[in-house]
Task: structure prediction
Amino acid sequence: MSAERTEEISESRVSSNPPVSEDGRNSDTTRNLVAAGDATRDEAAATRNETARRETARDGEHGSAASEVSLTKLRMQNRLPALEDDAEVGVQKEHVVTRDNKADLRFTGVLLASAAPASAPKGRWQEYRIYQTNGGKHVFSKVARSVLEAGNDTHEAEVFDPSPSSVPSQLIRSAREIAQARPLTWMDAAVGFFGYDPLAKALYRKLSVRFEERVN
Result:
């Protein structure tokens, strides 16, 4: 093989790999930068999501995610201070009062009064109710609600039986009251159950009896 032939073949092999243009190198660099930017954004988004998840778990039921709000209880909150059974006050019917960790109370009678706050800015509120049974007993109900799905409502209830022989339903009286043989009334029992917080006072004002302490 001649030296000229060998030189031609060498030139042909070199020319089979054309030089990369400056534009081509710039395009590759741009693609690499874009890919790196996407990866950084994905990593930042994953970090934000993880942070939000941890904050929600830490806050528990105080988390503000819209998915945690019960739409049913949100409607109840928006209706305050009105309650769903306001129209049943004074109506003779069968009632079922829920109690936590105890048997529910079923009786026939009337709802004497109910009370709820005008608003619940933190998504929590209480509902107080007093019933009278056809047998002359009184039922006191206290419900604590949360607008969140995770915030379970709590139900408390107590029965007052005016019969002196019904010891469990009587509140403990002082020695002076016993000496005076003062019978315990359902009004005393109501105060013992609800106390004198603003909502309890609003409940008492709806009744035809007076709960104020008289000073001479």
